[in-house]
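A quick aside before the break. I want you to see a complete sequence-to-structure record at least once, exactly as it would be stored in a machine-readable document. Don't worry about memorizing anything.
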Amino acid sequence: MNKIVIIDDSQDLLYVLKFFLTQKGYEVEIATREEELISLFKSFSPDLIIIDIYLHGEDGREICKKLRSHIETKYVCILMFSASAKKLANYKEYGADGYIEKPFGLNEVITKIEATLETCKDYRQLQ
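That is the input. The structure line, written in C-alpha cells, reads:
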C-alpha cells in the first residue's frame, strides 16, 4: 500500500482527498504547513507528496526544491497542484515529477498518482 502526504491550506480539499484516496487503498496523511510535512515525513515515510503551490505564507515550489536538496527526501515522488497553469508549466525546475491542475476530477487524481508512482519506482529503488 502506497503512502501519500498531501499539503494544502484548504482543509476541505484535504479532507475530501484523504477520504477518497483512503477509499482507493492509499494510506494518507495531511498537512497545511511545511513544518507539519517535515514531521510527517519522519514518522510516516511517504511514497508520494502532493503539494499545492500556493500555501499561506509559503511557496510549494520552494518547499519542493528543499525536499529535493535533502538526502532523506530526494527520491520521494512529488506532484504539485495549482489553479494556475502558468505556475505549473515549469514544475520540473522545482523538482516535481508531475502536476495536477485545479479544478480536477477525483479520477484524474488517481490517474496522476498511479502514473507518478510508476515513473518514480526506479528512483525509490535506488535509495
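Two observations worth writing down. The chain has a mean pLDDT of 89. Helices lie at 11-23, 34-44, 60-69, 85-88, 106-126. We'll return to this after the break.
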